[in-house]
Write a structure and sequence with these properties.
- About 35% of the residues are buried.
- This protein has two domains: about 90 residues, no CATH class; about 140 residues, Alpha Horseshoe (Serine Threonine Protein Phosphatase 5, Tetratricopeptide repeat).
- About 70% of the residues lie in helices and about 0% in strands.
- The radius of gyration is 20 Å and the shape is globular.
- α8 runs antiparallel to α9, α9 packs antiparallel against α10 and α9 packs parallel to α12.
- The protein contains 14 helices and no strands.
- The two termini are about 25 Å apart.
- It has about 270 residues and is an all-alpha fold.
Length: about 270
C-alpha cells in the first residue's frame, strides 16, 4: 500500500528536539496521527536543507521498511533521525524521516474506526475556539469511517450552516454526501457532489483543490457519470491543477484506477 505524507503549512518551526519529544509521547500512547503531525516540522526542515530532494532507498533500507509498522522500530528510527539532524546530516535524515513517516501512517491505518472516532471526540473537546471547525470536520469524517452516518450528517449540517468560504462549504457538502451515500441515498449523494463545486471558488479551494473522498466512494460503487461532471467542474472553474482533473476523468473513462490526490489535511 502506498502512503502519501502531506507536509503541512506551518507558521513557525519549533526546535527539533522538542518535536521529537512530543512525537515519542504521542507514539507511546497510540496517537500515530498526532505523532505524524509532530514529524512534519522536521520533514519540512529536511526538505528545505536538501532542496526538495526525494529519498532514494537502497536494498537494505527497502527491507527495513517492512519492519516499520512497529512502534519499537519507529522509536529507533526517530532516535537515529534526531542524531542525524543534530549532526546536520540532512541527506541521511531524509531517508530516516521518510521511513518514520511511512511507518506512522501505516500504524494509523490499522487503528479501528471506532477508536479513531473516540480520538476525534477527545480532540474536539480539547480544541481551542480557533481550531474547532478543523476538529469538527475531522470528527465528521471519522464518523463516516466508523459508519456512524447519522452523526456524520449532523456534523455536516452544522458545518454547512457555519461555512464562511467556498472551501468550507465544499468540505461540509463532501461530508454530507458521504453520509448520504453511507445511508443508501446514492442519487442524493451524486447531487451533493456536484453542488459542492457550484459557484465561484476561493483562493484556498483553487490552491488545495477539491476533496475527492466522495467522488472516490461513488466511483467505487460504479457511479462514474456524476463524478465525470464533478471533474469537469474542477477542471474548468475551480482547481488550478486543471490537467490533473482532466487526467482523473480520462482514467475513469478508460477504466483505469484513478490516481486520487490524498485527502486534505486542512
Amino acid at each position: 500500500m502506498r502512503f502519501v505524507i502531506t507536509l503541512m503549512a506551518l507558521t513557525s518551526l519549533p526546535a527539533p528536539a522538542q518535536d521529537f519529544d512530543r512525537l515519542l509521547r504521542e507514539l507511546n500512547r497510540g496517537r500515530y496521527d498526532r505523532a505524524l503531525e509532530e514529524l512534519f516540522p522536521a520533514q519540512r526542515l529536511i526538505r528545505d536543507k536538501t532542496a526538495g530532494k526525494v529519498a532514494q532507498l537502497d536494498a537494505g533500507q527497502m527491507a527495513q521498511m517492512r519492519e516499520m509498522r512497529n512502534p519499537a522500530a519507529i522509536t529507533s528510527t526517530v532516535a537515529l533521525l534526531r542524531l542525524q539532524m543534530e549532526r546536520e546530516d540532512f541527506e541521511s535524515a531524509l531517508v530516516s524521516a521518510m521511513m518514520a513517516g511511512l511507518g506512522l501512517a501505516g500504524l494509523w491505518t490499522e487503528v479501528p474506526a471506532y477508536r479513531k472516532l473516540d480520538y476525534a471526540r477527545e480532540d474536539l473537546a480539547e480544541a481551542p475556539a480557533g481550531r474547532r471547525a478543523f476538529h469538527e470536520r475531522q470528527m465528521g469524517f471519522a464518523a463516516v469511517e466508523a459508519k456512524e452516518y447519522g452523526l456524520a450528517a449532523a456534523m455536516a449540517k452544522d458545518l454547512l450552516a457555519k461555512a464562511d468560504s467556498a472551501y468550507a462549504r465544499h468540505s461540509a457538502l463532501t461530508l454530507k454526501g458521504l453520509a448520504e451515500l453511507g445511508g443508501g441515498q446514492v442519487e442524493t449523494a451524486e447531487a451533493v457532489l456536484l453542488d459542492s463545486l457550484r459557484g465561484t471558488g476561493d483562493l484556498l479551494l483553487r490552491d488545495l483543490g477539491p476533496d475527492f473522498r466522495l467522488a472516490r466512494a461513488l466511483v467505487e460503487r460504479g457511479r462514474t457519470a456524476a463524478v465525470g461532471e464533478f471533474l469537469k467542474l474542477a477542471e474548468k472553474t475551480v482547481w488550478k491543477q486543471a490537467a490533473r482533473a482532466a487526467a482523473l476523468r480520462r482514467q475513469i473513462e478508460t477504466g483505469e484506477p484513478p490516481d486520487w490526490p490524498p485527502a486534505p489535511k486542512f
